[in-house]
């Protein structure tokens, strides 16, 4: 059905899922664990294009077991990960042990990071499940330094009872909070998912208070 308050297509918001129970097997999905070298490489290439070119502070919201956090760390970024599931956070801490990364238990919509600000906020497959995505986006934009980036990987999955948030809706929600916004369609790259997909998958990069150079970089990432 459609949630009339935000046009998010959903039969459930994911809030009733026991993510602690799913943590042990979470990385078995190709795009979760990134265990296949080709899948891992595909995500690393995309992430390098989406995140700032220079090393900075990245906030990974709904970080799960930390697979994208690890890629960001390997690219030189300092990572803060937030997830509501203690079991997921435990696995993320193990995965990035010894790296410049910290993981905390908390709500992705209102992450417990205090006054800390970031060069990028990275969110994959989380926004669609929040009860008020517009409010979350406004809060996340406020966590960015000038010229910082919101990197949002989302989609609409399924046919009979689709769940997710269409790209056009997300772009509309970003209009009040971001400057340069670019969309990159991801459905056509099977390496990202471990196989062919037919549903809508995409990434949006939104630059807050962007300089002309930063805006150009974000636009190039969406080509």
Automatic annotation (TrEMBL):
InterPro entries documented for this protein: Methyltransf_11, SAM-dependent_MTases_sf
Domain annotation Methyltransferase type: ranges: 59-152
Gene Ontology molecular function, alphabetical: S-adenosylmethionine-dependent methyltransferase activity
Gene Ontology biological process: methylation
Sorted UniProt keywords: Methyltransferase, S-adenosyl-L-methionine, Transferase
This protein's record includes keyword ATP-binding: no
Keyword S-adenosyl-L-methionine: yes
A Pfam family it matches: Methyltransf_11
SUPFAM superfamilies: S-adenosyl-L-methionine-dependent methyltransferases (SSF53335)
Domain of life: Bacteria
Name of this chain's protein: Phosphatidylethanolamine N-methyltransferase
């Amino acid at each position: 059905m459609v949630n009339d308050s935000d046009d998010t297509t959903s039969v459930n918001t994911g809030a009733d899922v026991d993510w602690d129970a799913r943590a042990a097997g979470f990385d078995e999905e190709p795009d979760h664990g990134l265990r296949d070298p080709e899948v891992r490489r595909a995500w690393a290439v995309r992430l390098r294009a989406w995140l700032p070119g220079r090393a900075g502070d990245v906030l990974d919201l709904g970080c799960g077991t930390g697979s994208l956090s690890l890629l960001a760390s390997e690219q030189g970024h300092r990572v803060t990960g937030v997830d509501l599931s203690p079991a997921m956070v435990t696995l993320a801490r193990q995965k990035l042990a010894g790296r410049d990364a910290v993981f905390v238990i908390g709500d992705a919509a209102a992450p417990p990071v205090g006054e800390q600000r970031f060069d990028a906020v990275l969110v994959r497959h989380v926004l669609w499940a929040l009860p008020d995505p517009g409010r979350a986006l406004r809060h996340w934009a406020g966590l960015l330094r000038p010229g910082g980036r919101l990197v949002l990987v989302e989609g609409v999955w399924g046919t009979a009872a689709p769940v997710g948030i269409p790209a056009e809706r997300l772009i509309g929600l970003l209009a009040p909070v971001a400057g340069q916004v670019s969309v990159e369609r991801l459905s056509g790259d099977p390496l990202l998912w471990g196989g062919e997909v037919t549903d809508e998958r995409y990434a949006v990069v939104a630059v807050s208070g962007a300089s002309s150079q930063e805006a150009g970089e974000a636009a190039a990432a969406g080509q």
